[in-house]
Amino acid sequence: MRLRFTLLVPFTAAALGGCVDHDTLTAPRATPSRILIPSRSGDRVATIEWEGRNPRLYLQNLDGTDRVRVSFDHVSDHVVGNYSPLQLPVTDESLTRITTAKWSPDGRYLAVIVAPSTEALQVVLVSADGRALRTVSPNSQYLWGSVEWSPDASRIAYIMATGPYGMLPDLFVTELGRDQVQRVTTGAKLSGYDAMRFDATGSRIFFTEHLGFADDGINSLSRMASVDVATGVISRGETVVGDPQAIAHDGSWALFVRTADVTTGVRELFRLPVPSGGAKPTVLATGAIAGAVVTDNDEEALLNEWGDNGATFSVIGLSQPGDVRTKLSTNGAVTWASLWRAP
After folding, report:
1. Share of the chain above pLDDT 70, in %
2. What is the pLDDT of residues 230-271, one digit of tens each?
3. What is the 3-state secondary structure (H, E, C) of the chain?
4. pLDDT tens, 73-86?
5. Strand order in the sheet with 204-213
6. For residue 275, is the peptide bond before it cis, meaning its omega torsion is within 30 degrees of 0?
């Protein structure tokens, strides 16, 4: 059954593409590309950065070598009901934003949220060699926050608006191969502040719900929750003061960032047991912290900090405070980074 939502772009009779045989689509099709991706023998980093008015996606080694740019050409789309690429083309010239990028657990793909217009966003799947690109979400809706992969890399979760003007966001999952879109929640209190994570089996998604702001008027007030992907039944837990960053695959802990000192603006990244049972959080880092992106092994995270020359990124351990393992070689134009660790 086709999903029906409020469209964010003008409707025309020729806008919708024809139906395809989903059973024949098992992987992104390789398409020509101008870039030459070197062979990957170790850890890889994806960065989103600005070049003038243009958002760009780069791939590089952890030390900054073998740096190449992904070219958004030949983006295919097999999601039933989507607008034609002629209506919402995804090209280097058409993109107004690239908001997030996440490596798949096996390091073969990136899930990237792009905006080919001022309002509509969509998830585009990019192969690690940069050659195969395709849309895997409804391409006429507004997406909130980031994306999340299932442990077997067969599905991608994202938060998508279901109402007018980008409102009423809920949790959706695309099953890759068939590019089948499934609505997982209805009426959840989701927003761009929230985090989500598949459990180790892929049958449940842990997520947070944005309830507003704490008494200080600065920090977010978030509620822990989880949903059964098959049934849509939601279980809700405790509330936490802070902006959620990530949740463990087993749901036993979560990462948050909060403003610790309202006067100085110092922020802290902390790890909290779930449920906390009144336990104190472990403060992993303090400073001008923007956020953190956890690696798939749940052992490290990429820490994003504001600096005089833009954002800076470092790899930190999640077990004890101050465990900075390496600094990333990036420039001040980078706004987002995602790390894939070679097994």
Report:
1. 88
2. 999 999 999 999 999 999 999 999 999 999 988 888 999 999
3. CCCCCCCCCCCCCCCECCCCCHHHCCCCCCCCCCCCCCCCCCCEEEEEEEECCEEEEEEEECCCCCCEEECCCCCEECCCCCECCCCCCCCCCCCCEEEEEEECCCCCEEEEEEECCCCCEEEEEEECCCCCEEECCCCCECEEEEEEECCCCCEEEEEEECCHHHCCEEEEEEECCCCEEEECCCCCCCCCCCCEEECCCCCEEEEEEEEEECCCCCCEEEEEEEEECCCCCEEEEEEEECEEEEECCCCCEEEEEEECCCCCCCEEEEEEECCCCCCCCEEEEEECEEEEEECCCCCEEEEEEEECCEEEEEEEECCCCCCEEEECCCCCCEEEEEEECCC
4. 889 999 999 988 88
5. 196-198, 204-213, 220-228, 234-241
6. yes
Q: How far apart are CA 205 and CA 150, in angstroms?
A: 9
Tokens of 5: 């939502």
